[in-house]
């Protein structure tokens, strides 16, 4: 057997198990889900499955709860991407300076990422319900004492963003740290000699040099924001209720939670599958568009 042929056989042998698992766990279930999304499937044993075509998709786009969840998911993702990246970048600048205990700071900022979403949600539930009002009472600030971050539908979204940012900013910080450490110090020193201030160095040297990191961190925060589930379940369980287009909806029921509730709580499996398909397509378009836009910015820089 020729060496080239032998290499191909070895390559195929190593690739086959992973490819088989990917096809069985991802590809086949995806197309099965696409079929079931066009039926009235409810997963009830013995019940006949009937073909309904695009009715589930039509009902989905006419559903007020889905429309509201769609809008709130985009809002949550927008706020999370901005807050996480800003705080992570500030943390990265801090822990790459010549300061004492910087390795300890790195570990401390990263540790929240190791906490599971459910546990983290219960921690922040305690903070919002007990700690924040107690601090407000001690300081005599009624605005903080009566701050209802889990009860007011207009404020709950900010509570979710705070909890998610606290969990995820440390992880994103590590990516920025790696990028900042690769910025040539000679360029920064030369710019200082020319009289550049911090903002000029950041805008004209640091940002272009870490442009690839922006692409990666934006993608990760965007995708994870859209898929957020466990923190919401632990912190608010989708509530509190709000009024949208004359109907009662759950103010923090983002798309991942909404799809789960439709499929498993209300046992409308086919409708839940149809919404999951749309969610997948939407997330694919948004994430690919974000990567394309950021890559284009990298070239321009």
Would you give an account of this structure?
Helices cover 74% and strands 3% of the residues. With 301 residues, the chain is mainly α. The protein has a single domain, classed as Orthogonal Bundle (MetI-like fold), CATH 1.10.3720.10. The radius of gyration is 24 Å and the shape is globular. The mean pLDDT is 90.
Instruction: Return Rg in Å.
Output: 24 Å
The CATH homologous superfamily is termed MetI-like
Distance between the ends: 50 Å
- Topology as H/E string? HHHHHHHHHHHEEHH
Q: Level of helix content?
A: over 70%
Strand order of the largest sheet: 1-2
Task: Count the E strands.
Answer: 2
Poorly predicted tracts of residues:
none
CATH hierarchy: architecture: Orthogonal Bundle
Give descriptors for this structure.
301 residues; MetI-like fold; two-stranded antiparallel sheet; 74% helix
């Amino acid at each position: 057997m020729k060496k080239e042929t032998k290499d191909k056989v070895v390559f195929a042998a190593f690739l086959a198990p992973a490819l088989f698992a990917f096809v069985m766990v991802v590809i086949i279930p995806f197309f099965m889900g696409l079929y079931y999304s066009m039926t009235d499937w409810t997963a009830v044993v013995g019940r006949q499955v009937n073909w309904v075509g695009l009715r589930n998709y039509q009902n989905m786009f006419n559903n007020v709860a889905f429309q509201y969840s769609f809008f709130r998911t985009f809002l949550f993702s927008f706020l999370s991407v901005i807050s996480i990246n800003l705080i992570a970048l500030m943390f990265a600048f801090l822990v790459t300076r010549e300061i004492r205990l910087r390795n300890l700071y790195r570990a401390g900022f990263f540790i929240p990422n190791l906490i599971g979403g459910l546990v983290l949600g219960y921690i922040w539930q305690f903070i919002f319900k007990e700690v924040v009002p107690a601090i407000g009472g001690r300081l005599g600030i009624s605005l903080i004492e009566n701050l209802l971050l889990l009860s007011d539908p207009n404020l709950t979204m900010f509570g979710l963003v705070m909890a998610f940012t606290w969990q995820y900013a440390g992880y994103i910080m590590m990516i920025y740290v790696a990028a900042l450490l690769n910025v040539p110090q000679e360029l920064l020193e030369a710019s200082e000699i020319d009289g550049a201030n911090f903002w000029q160095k950041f805008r004209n040297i640091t940002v272009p040099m870490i442009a690839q990191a922006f692409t990666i961190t934006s993608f990760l925060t965007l995708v994870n924001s859209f898929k957020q589930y466990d923190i919401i379940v632990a912190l608010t369980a989708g509530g509190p209720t709000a009024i949208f287009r004359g109907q009662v909806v759950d103010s923090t029921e983002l798309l991942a939670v909404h799809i789960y509730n439709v499929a498993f709580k209300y046992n409308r499996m086919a409708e839940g599958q149809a919404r999951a398909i749309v969610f997948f397509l939407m997330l694919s378009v948004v994430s690919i568009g974000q990567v394309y836009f950021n890559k284009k910015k990298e070239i321009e820089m």
